[in-house]
Amino acid sequence: MPGAPGDFPAARTGVPGAFDVLAATGVHLRGLRADDLPWLRDLYATTREEEMAPVPWPAAHKRAFLDQQFEAQHRHYLQVYADADFLAVCDVRGLLGRLYLRRGAPDHLIVDVSLFPAARGRGLGTALILAAQQDAAAQGRGMTLHVLQQNPAARRLYERLGFVAGASAASYVRMDWRAAPVS
To answer: Which residue from 48, 51, 135, 147 has the least number of CB within 10 angstroms?
Structure first.
């Protein structure tokens, strides 16, 4: 469990070996730290830009609202997914995004994968998910995630990677992936 509110737990076992394939592209993962919170807050805000664009608030009010939303999400993730790996996605230029991954039985769970706008659309999200799937498959596990119903692009990506839509709740759709059986 984290030491103080807002602290990240230490990565349980380090970055899974399946993510080593990213090194060939110059991308690496590292555990998140409390001093990462400012850029994580900025990243979160980028994921809500389209949604917030039509809201007729001054920019400062929008940002204050998004900061509050980030804080609530952050505390929720730390409490509910304390056993997850909270990872920064980086390259030589700097920070690209985050990957929150809970690896355990019966299935691994992608809690969150978010990339800054400049890192989107280049195949990095696909590479992260494929590596997570490889890690799950190596342990004989499947993978689960939840996607916003208002995010059809993400849903298409997940479907292309073999995820199948399941139960829907309020604004999210659960999607599941099963590794091909080993013969």
So the answer is: 51
Task: Give the model confidence (pLDDT) of 26-43 as tens digits.
Answer: 999 999 999 999 999 999
Contacts 24+ apart (CB under 8 A), 122-126: 124/25, 124/27, 124/89, 124/96, 124/97, 125/157, 126/157, 126/161
Distance CA 164, CA 157 (A): 11
In 26-182, beta strands by DSSP E: 28-31, 85-91, 94-102, 107-115, 142-148, 164-169, 172-177
pTM of the model: 0.91
19-23 contacts at long range (C-beta below 8 A, 24 or more positions apart): 19/128, 19/131, 19/132, 19/135, 21/127, 21/131, 21/134, 22/127, 22/128, 22/131
Please answer whether residues 129 and 154 qualify as being in contact, where contact means their C-beta atoms are separated by less than 8 angstroms.
no
Say what the pLDDT of residue 4 is: 54
Q: What percentage of the chain exceeds 90 in pLDDT?
A: 77
DSSP 76: H
pLDDT for the residue numbered 2:
43
